[in-house]
Amino acid sequence: MRSAIGKYVVLPNEEALNAVTLWVAATHIQTALQHAPRLAVMSPTKGCGKSRVLDVLYETVHDPMMTVNTSPAVIFRTIGKIPPTLLVDEADTIFSPKAAGDSEILRGLLNAGHQRNRPAWRISGPEHKPTPFPTFAMAAIAGIGDLPDTITDRSVVLRMQKRKPGEKVAPFRTRYAAPELNALRDRLAAWLVPLRSTAARMVPEMPVEDRAADTWEPLVIIADLAGGHWPAQARAACLAMTRHEAVQDEQTSLKTRLLRDIHRIFERANNPEALPTLDLVAALIQDAEAPWAEHGAKGLNAYHLGNLLRDFGIGPVNFRFEQGRQAKAYLRNRFRDAWARHCPDLIQAVAPLEPAHGTSPARPTQRKPPMGGPAGSLPVGPPGGPAGPKRTP
Question: Could you tell me which of 164, 170, 340, 350 has the fewest CB atoms within 10 Å of its CB?
Fold first, then answer.
C-alpha cells in the first residue's frame, strides 16, 4: 500500500508517506477506535497534488464518501454505526469568509466527529423529537491555504508542494489504477477486520501527549499490529510531523500578529492608499509591546517583512507619492483578503470602497483604493482573484 500511494503522489517526506499509509489502514478498523483522526491535505497554491491524494484515498479507504460541496444535513444522515470515510475537497471554498452559514455547522460536525460519543442533536421526524445523530467518522479534508485551527489541531497534516523537476509520478487513470488499489484495499481489510477487537484493547505507548496522542494513536495501533519496522517508523513520523506543526503554529501566530499590527498602523495614519516600506517597518519596531524590535538578529527589517507577508500573497510595489516621490511601499488594498481570512473581526474595518473615477486627489491619505496597482506592478487584489486594470501614474 505504501508503495502504491508513493507511485501516484509525491508527499512532503517519508514520514508523511508512512502516515498516509497508516491512516488509510486505520479507516478499515475505525469502529474499534476511540478517535477518528482527520487527514488535512493543504497546499499553498493549486497544482500541488492534493486532489490526487483524495483520488488515491477514494480507491483505498473503507467506504469512501467523496464530496466537494455538501450540506451538514446530508452528512448527519450518512454517518451511522459503521461510518463511511469522508473525503472533502475544495475545503477552502467551504471555510472562506464568504461561505454560507452552514460552514460553521460543518466545522462543528468535523470537530465533534474526531471523538466517539459526540452526537449532534437535532429535532427530527413528524413528532419533532430530539434525535442524536452520530458524528464519529474518519475524514480527509483538502484545500488551498490553511484549514481552521480547530480542524488542523485534530489532524495528521500534509503540507503539499509542487513537484520539483525530476520528481516523477505515474499517471493516475481510474480505469487501470483503481483495480490495483482496490485489490490492495481488500487485502488490507481482510488482514485488519479480524483484528478489530484486538485493536480496541490496545493502549500503545505514545511519543506525544494530549490531543496529538489522541489523533496519532490509531496510526500507532496499526503500526504495532503490523510489527517489523512499522512501530518505530510510525512513532518517528508522529514526532516529526507534530513538531513541524508546532513550529507552523508559532509562525502563524506571529504572522497573524503582524497583520493586526499593520492594520492598526494603517488606521493611525488615516488609512492611506499606501505606506512606504521603511515607514511601516519603523512603526512596527516602535511598538514597545510588539516582538518586532527583537525580530531576527537586529530587529525587523524590510527583508523580514517581505518574508513574513509572502505567504499571504502580499509584497511591496513601486509607488508614486505626492510631489512625485517614488518609493517601495505596501498597498492597503493588498491586505484586505488576508485581514478577512485571518482576522475576521477586522472585516468591517476593511469594507471595500468604490474608487473615484476620473479624479486624482492630491493626497494619498484621502484617495480611495484603486482597482489596480502602479504601472509595472502586479495587479491589486486577493491571491488568485481577478486582476484589475493597471493604473497609469
Answer: 164
The radius of gyration of the chain from alpha carbons, rounded to an integer in Å, stands at 24
Q: What is the pTM of this model?
A: 0.70
CA distance 252 to 352: 25
Return per-residue pLDDT of the chain as tens, 393 residues: 999 999 999 999 999 999 999 999 999 999 999 999 999 999 988 889 999 999 999 999 999 999 887 778 888 788 988 899 999 998 888 876 656 567 788 888 899 999 999 998 888 888 899 989 899 999 999 998 888 888 999 999 999 999 988 889 999 999 999 999 999 999 999 999 999 999 999 999 999 999 999 999 999 999 999 999 999 999 999 999 999 998 888 777 888 899 999 999 999 999 999 999 999 999 999 988 889 999 988 899 999 999 999 988 999 999 999 888 899 999 999 999 889 888 877 765 444 443 433 333 334 333 333 333 333 333 333 334 444 434 434
**How many other C-beta atoms can be found within 10 angstroms of the C-beta atom of residue 61?**
27
